[in-house]
Amino acid sequence: MTTELIAALPGIVFITDAALVRQRSRDFFWYSPVLKRQLNGVKADAVALPKDEGEVIRILAECHARRIPVTPRGAGTGNYGQAMPLKGGIVLDLSAMDRVIWAKPGVLRAQAGAKLIAIDEQTRREVGGELRFHPSTKRTATIGGFIAGGSAGAGSCMWGSLREPGNILGLRVVTMEATPRVLELRGADIDKANHAYGTNGVITEVEVPLAPAQDWVDLMFGFPTLMDAARFADALTRADGIVKKLACVIAAPVPQQYFKHFEGVVPAGTHVVLAMVAAPFLEALPPYIERTNGRELYRCPTDQAAVPLYEHSWNHTTLQALKVDRSITYLQTLFPPPGHLALVEKMAAMFGDEVPMHLEFVRFGGEVTCFGLQLVRYTTEERLAEIIRLHEESGCPIFNPHAFTLEEGGMKRVDARQLAFKREADPLGLLNPGKMLAWDNPAWTPDAPRSHYMFGDADAPEVEDALGE
């Protein structure tokens, strides 16, 4: 079937070498020992590398005609199998579609395969702007992959996450039908394809706002207690007049054990805050540092750092630990406001060094709070499940990084709008099959109801309302 498909698509580049196909069928799923067990053998039959939207349309039409599954992919920097082809078929690698289409003051339009670091370089040069926020994988990730599979990152302490209206302005999406359509999603329609893992359309272009470009400075502060560090990061995030891009708390002994680029910088027993602050605002920091018993340990302009601090934050904190200890894994936790600091203190006391605390302070639904990307000193799947249960029973929702479906991870509910759009845009269910539980079971519900969702809201429409059933 793959040979017939390639023959039907002259001029389009395909990869069929088994080792390369396996390589581009994988992401960072191995962060999770559970996903490593479940997904390690997943592999496509071939990889297609379209150079423009016309080739995407041709590929989708021919695969639809042959009932061949298609899994869209950016740089493959996701952590839970978002871009892994569970049912084989074709991986649609969009990395060759990498142009910035246009940039204006305050706004950008780019092809899905454009790398985030290249976008920032071009927009800084041309219009004095930069992306509002980016994942810790900025140097390799693509803009389409970030929107399809990511949620937040460096800059979310100022701008929130991809769930917040206004952080995505437009998506151009190709459907998978007998005759694929090209749709422009704007306004509320963006939610149909935002963080959908490419299950209901292939994103080919993205339009996003830009923030004014800044001269960023990397800063590391040390604190005698975890809660001193957390209070400083919380206060920095609330300081609306200070332009910042990172407020990351990492408990001892994680920096001392795993931050090889900073050996000797962090004293034993010291908890740290990693911060990125725009240069003009550095003089505003001392009162916050003094009130929380902190002291500066490190300072360097971000663009001069051998390894920027954002590559020790967000999902890179776990990666730095995994470079030293492959038994480490992690969680993704919301500490709901306004009691987030009390919950952090409670969970740190409950688990101690079994679950070292790592917090990213953000704006979430208009409020300041923190996400936990705590490390876990992994022993068994049963103990991991118990740790997750104890967090949720304490009022700390877990967005499970040890599951590969939309609903079990960031959604924690059936997103009726995305399901309805999939029925319209991918009627045969060929796009990234196996990642949307609702496709096979629209009535799926989590074990317990939620008050907070990474994407979608508690009062979102029910499936019957959205589908007209």
Automatic annotation (TrEMBL):
Keywords: FAD, Flavoprotein. Residues 40-213 form the FAD-binding PCMH-type domain. It comes from the Bacteria. InterPro entries: FAD-bd_PCMH, FAD-bd_PCMH-like_sf, FAD-bd_PCMH_sub2, FAD-linked_Oxase-like_C, Oxid_FAD_bind_N. Pfam families: FAD_binding_4 (PF01565). Transmembrane segments: none annotated. The keyword Ribonucleoprotein does not apply. This is FAD-linked oxidase.
